[in-house]
Design brief:
This protein is an alpha+beta fold. It has two domains: 37 residues; 79 residues, ACT-like. Chain A, domain 2 (Alpha-Beta Plaits, 2-Layer Sandwich). It contains four helices and four strands, in the order ααβαββαβ. A four-stranded antiparallel beta sheet has the order 2-3-1-4, covered by helices on one side. The longest helix is centred in the first third of the chain and has 17 residues. The radius of gyration is 20 Å and the shape is elongated. The N and C termini lie close together (11 Å). The structure holds nickel (II) ion.
C-alpha cells in the first residue's frame, strides 16, 4: 500500500463552497476522495497527450440501411487491429445501431481510428471515451 501523504491548500471560500456542492452532488464520500479523482482525471488527460498506451471506447451510432456501412466499419477496424480489442453491437431500433469499439494503444493511433470511422457515410454520431490502462496511474 502506498504511503499516505497529507497537504493543505488555501482556497477562496466561494470556490470551496462550489467544490463541496459538487462533492455532494457527485457522491464523493470525502474531499480527499474527490481530489484524488480529479488528480487522476488530469493525469489520464495527460496520458492521452503522450506516446504511451491508453485505453478507451469509440461510440458510433449509425443507420445500418446505409450502403455497406457495416462492411466499411469492419474494414477500418481490421486496418487498425493493433488498437482494436473488441466490438459490441447494439440494435437501438429498426434503423439505428450503436457500436462500442473498445480500444487500447497509442493515443495517436486511436485518434486515427476515430477519424476513419467517423468519415464513413451513414455515421450519425461518433465520439471517444478516454481512460487509462491503469498500468502507470498511481
Ligand atoms: Ni444493429
Amino acid at each position: 500500500m502506498a504511503k499516505l501523504a497529507r497537504f493543505s491548500i488555501s482556497l477562496d471560500q466561494d470556490l470551496l463552497q462550489a467544490f463541496d456542492t459538487l462533492i455532494a452532488r457527485e457522491g464523493y464520500p470525502t474531499r480527499s476522495e474527490a481530489v484524488k479523482h480529479l488528480i487522476r482525471g488530469v493525469l489520464v488527460d495527460e496520458e492521452w497527450q503522450g506516446e504511451g498506451n491508453v485505453a478507451g471506447a469509440v461510440l458510433l451510432v449509425y443507420d445500418h440501411h446505409k450502403p455497406d456501412v457495416i462492411g466499411k466499419l469492419v474494414d477500418i477496424q481490421h486496418d487498425h487491429m493493433d488498437c482494436t480489442i473488441c466490438t459490441q453491437h447494439v440494435h437501438l431500433d429498426h434503423n439505428n445501431c450503436l457500436e462500442i469499439v473498445t480500444v487500447r494503444g497509442p493515443a495517436s493511433q486511436i485518434r486515427q481510428l476515430l477519424t476513419a470511422l467517423r468519415s464513413v457515410k451513414g455515421i450519425k454520431h461518433a465520439t471517444l471515451l478516454t481512460t487509462t490502462t491503469g498500468s502507470t496511474l498511481p
